[in-house]
């Protein structure tokens, strides 16, 4: 027996402190739902988890970009559909002007065609998405569709204004360029419906306009399908990375509850044992009392 150092009691206290720490750690994990709360818990696991979280948030934002891209292309397609309907109606009127009607009837047809060209122009100028014009600009716009560098795509925008759409011709260099004498605006301003060549020139312009609209719509449709497919791929990939990150960072609540209950019992047992071990020095006092009494 020793008075200065109660070794059994110190051993019990050391184990009690260990169990207290484990109990507190289990309680923290249960309350937060995470097994890595601070860097000291698992430095390597924390580094992997943080990199995965960066990737997950980037993919989530890329998915929002793709959703916005799909909405934008659908808006553009809606405007193109209206333009296509106008073009088809104008073609009907052009053919109708070739009947045996009077000059006054033909002028009425031309007035309707002119109004439809103005409607065409209005749709082109007013079709926009979130303040961005879609049908009266001629440029490529870069869009980020992924979480990494280079995961982007150029979306081509075409100016479909009445004075910018019509019959194409080859220039001196052999390159295609717009024929300014055969545009939709030229049809309105310069073609006389009473002339013999009106139907031929008008149909040539309208067919060129129709082909351009179909070409642009097909490109936007292909981009729309690509965006939707990329969105699905990103969504599945994000789910996989999220699951992997969860296995690293998230706590197993059932396991932590077991640990919390176990360490709680050990702490109570430690308290009881310390009470008993602290009685040992008292035995020394009794022995000394017996010696003194003699």
Automatic annotation (TrEMBL):
UniProt keywords, alphabetically? Bacterial flagellum, Cell projection, Cilium, Flagellum, Secreted
Query: Could you tell me the superkingdom of the organism this chain comes from?
Result: Bacteria
Record keyword Ribosomal protein present:
no
The protein's name is Flagellin
Task: Quote the function comment for this protein.
Answer: Flagellin is the subunit protein which polymerizes to form the filaments of bacterial flagella.
| Family membership noted in the UniProt record | Belongs to the bacterial flagellin family.
Flagellin N-terminal domain segment(s): 4-136
Q: Can you say where in the cell this protein is located? A: Secreted; Bacterial flagellum
Q: Where's the Flagellin C-terminal domain?
A: 203-288
Coiled-coil region(s): none
């Amino acid at each position: 027996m020793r008075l200065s150092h109660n070794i059994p009691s110190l051993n019990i206290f050391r184990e009690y402190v260990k169990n207290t720490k484990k109990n507190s750690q289990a309680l923290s994990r249960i309350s937060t739902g995470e097994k890595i709360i601070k860097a000291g818990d698992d430095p390597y696991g924390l580094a992997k988890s943080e990199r995965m979280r960066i990737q997950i948030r980037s993919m989530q934002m890329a998915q929002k970009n793709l959703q916005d891209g799909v909405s934008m292309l659908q808006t553009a397609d809606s405007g193109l559909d209206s333009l296509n309907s106008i073009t088809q109606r104008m073609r009907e009127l052009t053919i109708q002007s070739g009947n045996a009607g009077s000059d006054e009837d033909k002028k009425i047809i031309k007035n309707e065609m002119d109004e439809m060209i103005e409607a065409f122009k209005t749709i082109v100028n007013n079709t926009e998405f979130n303040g961005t014009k879609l049908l009266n600009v001629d440029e490529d716009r870069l869009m980020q569709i992924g979480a990494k560098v280079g995961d982007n795509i150029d979306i081509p925008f075409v100016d479909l204004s009445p004075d910018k759409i019509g019959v194409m011709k080859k220039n001196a260099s052999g390159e295609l360029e717009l024929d300014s004498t055969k545009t939709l605006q030229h049809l309105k301003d310069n073609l006389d419906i009473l002339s013999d060549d009106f139907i031929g020139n008008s149909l040539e312009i309208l067919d060129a306009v129709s082909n351009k609209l179909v070409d642009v719509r097909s490109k936007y449709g292909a981009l729309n399908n690509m965006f939707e497919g990329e969105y699905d791929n990103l969504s599945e990939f994000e789910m996989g990375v999220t699951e992997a990150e969860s296995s690293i960072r998230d706590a197993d609540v059932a396991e932590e509850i077991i640990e919390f209950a176990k360490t709680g019992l050990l702490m109570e047992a430690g308290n009881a044992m310390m009470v008993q071990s602290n009685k040992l020095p008292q035995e020394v006092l009794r022995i000394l009392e017996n010696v003194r009494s003699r």
